[in-house]
DNA sequence: CTTGATTTACGTTTCAGTCAAGTAATCTAA
DNA sequence: TTAGATTACTTGACTGAAACGTAAATCAAG
């Protein structure tokens, strides 16, 4: 028997096994190139070079550019999402809890060049709409849900006004990242704090 | 004298004059293709076809793709900016004035595919930063200034609270367009109204 | 020595940018 | 009125570079 410690392990397939590190290097390279060069300027050759692999190796594992990028976005966002522990709301002032939650939503938390990446995804929405779908499903939606759950929880605790349009407030809060970047070319470190400060009178239970 | 009614007109240069309609058709085609295909997927051949012109004609007037796109963005944003008349603040409730102002900022007011266009510009920011510069200077900055002037004016009239962080409020208001699009894939018609409603308690003079 | 992973080398396509030849429009001068 | 000069536009073709995707050769692991 070639089974390992887990009992129902498959027998190792014949032939040379795949280098287990390659997938990770390639996925990382894809995300980096996508953020810097954008989808259509990004080339398989560059990705292969970044990953320290040759081009056909990539074609062996993924059918083409599209699927490669989809896989990379999917993996990257899943990982990032899994790395976010829930936030503790007890014992901190409500305004600080909202600030902390918004700070966690910053596009800069994941990739440094995340805004360029978002731009690439947006630019591709007529041509490769799957990118936006993945982006929405694995990046935007979980973050927004998290923010909305926090607001809802604070609302239940009577820390926020009861007639709050939570959906709309969340859109306002999240949107300021994009507006800040588009206006100034960067996302300021104190943006989340300033945004919540400015918005606070509209949401706090008086 | 070949001078026209305006006295100091230049003498017409010799040779066949340029077709005056071509520039316009080409600029329009560039904006359209940029919004749909993005910068690097967009081809001169497609633009020429859309404009009903041959490729060498484009190269006769613009040195290359870059300059072509820069010229098109520049012209397009200048025009759109010039088409916005000032807003009358008298005789309307302050909240409606802010709503009206924000509605005018909608990316959908200009090109229909404006978000794709913005995505293309963002995606290109490492490779062709001039695009973002033009975008900031001729599209974002004037709009934001307009919004901030309106808020300031209302503040002077004691319709908004005096300790307002106008800059931050403007970022919040403008950003909701991007957040809405990224979340849902469209910009809802009532977004401006809902955003101002949600934000109103934070900014109105009580 | 068989099998599959990886690489080196190749063919094809696409597109930017250029060029040459022919046609069209406008001005000037005879 | 007409002939020439000058510039704009079209058609068609060409070059070179970039990049996709593949086929043949090579390499590790049983």
Name some characteristics of this structure.
homodimer; 206 residues; mainly alpha; DNA-binding
Question: What does this protein look like?
Answer:
The first copy, chain A, is mainly alpha-helical and 206 residues long. Helices cover 63% and strands 0% of the residues of chain A. Chain A contains 9 helices and no strands. Chain A has helices at 22-37, 44-51, 55-61, 65-82, 94-104, 114-123, 129-156, 166-184, 191-203. Chains A and B meet through helix 6, helix 7, helix 8 and helix 9 of A and helix 6, helix 7, helix 8 and helix 9 of B. Chain B binds a DNA duplex (30 and 30 nucleotides) through helix 3.
Question: Which class do the helix and strand fractions of chain A yield?
Answer: mainly alpha
* Mean pLDDT over the residues of chain A: 89
- Taken as a percent bin, the fraction of beta residues of chain A is under 5%
Looking at how many chains there are and whether they match, the oligomeric state comes to homodimer
User: Can you summarize the main beta sheet of chain A?
Assistant: none
Helix-strand topology string of chain A: HHHHHHHHH
Shape of chain A: elongated
Range of helix content of chain A: 55-70%
Could you name the ranges of chain A where pLDDT drops below 50 across 5 or more consecutive residues? 1-9
Largest interface: A-B, 53 and 54 residues
Query: Number of DSSP strands of chain A?
Result: 0
Number of helices of chain A: 9
Radius of gyration of chain A: 21 Å
- Distance from N terminus to C terminus of chain A (CA atoms, Å) equals 70 Å
